[in-house]
């Protein structure tokens, strides 16, 4: 009987303890590198992580009002945290740039600070980041990160009439 060593636990086991690849292999008898028990443990951990991450995301969304601060969008699939201010270029420690779950854990640890973070839908967040304003509120402008890096003191034209202003 053939045996194989599991890359996860390092134990040599009979080949029947390893699942076969489903498709796409030149050898139809080739098998996965992790044994069945290690793969099931890994899958349980991943499922648990997904559940706890989803719970933390719901907690963050709830703490920041449950809707986009600009347009009022409330579908949680569209919502994201926005850093108010130009944190990308003003933070002395670049290693403190966080996003995703690391940012959510940081916000929870800090008690959900409202002065430096807000909840925006993806469209509003991208518009503020790229153009410096959101079409829902064109008179309220803030400098996007790229503009802050190039010209920290400069004026950014904003609003629907200013979109092509620099191209004339």
Which terms summarize this structure?
168 residues, alpha+beta, two-stranded antiparallel sheet
What's the total helix number?
Answer: 5
Radius of gyration: 24 Å
**Global outline:** elongated
Number of strands: 6
Give the rounded overall mean pLDDT.
75
Q: Sheet with the most strands? A: 2 strands, antiparallel
Helix amount: 25-40%
- N-end to C-end Cα span: 77 Å
Number of structural units classed as domains: 2
Describe this structure in words.
The protein is α+β, with helices and mostly antiparallel strands and 168 residues long. It is built from 5 helices and 6 strands, in the order ββαβααβαββα. It has helices at residues 36-63, 87-90, 100-109, 122-131, 145-150, and strands spanning 3-5, 12-14, 79-83, 117-121, 133-134, 137-141. The protein has a two-stranded antiparallel sheet. A two-stranded antiparallel sheet has the order 3-4.
Question: How is this fold's topology laid out?
Answer:
Elements: E1 3-5, E2 12-14, H1 36-63, E3 79-83, H2 87-90, H3 100-109, E4 117-121, H4 122-131, E5 133-134, E6 137-141, H5 145-150
Antiparallel strand pairs: 1-2, 3-4, 5-6
Please outline what is shown here.
This protein is an alpha+beta fold and 168 residues long.
């Amino acid at each position: 009987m053939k045996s194989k060593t599991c890359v996860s636990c390092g134990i040599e086991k009979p080949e029947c303890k390893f699942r076969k690849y489903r498709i796409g292999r030149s050898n139809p008898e080739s098998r996965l590198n992790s044994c069945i028990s290690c793969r099931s443990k890994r899958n349980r951990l991943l499922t648990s992580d997904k559940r706890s991450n989803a719970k933390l995301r719901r907690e963050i969304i709830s703490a920041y009002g449950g809707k986009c601060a600009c347009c009022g969008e409330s579908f949680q699939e569209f919502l994201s945290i926005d850093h108010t201010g130009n944190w990308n270029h003003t933070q002395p420690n670049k290693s403190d740039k966080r996003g995703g779950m690391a940012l959510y854990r940081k916000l929870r640890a800090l008690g959900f600070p409202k002065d430096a973070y807000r909840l925006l839908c993806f469209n509003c967040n991208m518009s503020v980041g790229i153009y410096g304003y959101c079409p829902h509120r064109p008179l309220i402008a803030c400098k996007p990160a790229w503009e802050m890096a190039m010209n920290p003191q400069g004026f950014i034209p904003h609003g629907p009439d200013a979109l092509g202003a620099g191209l004339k």
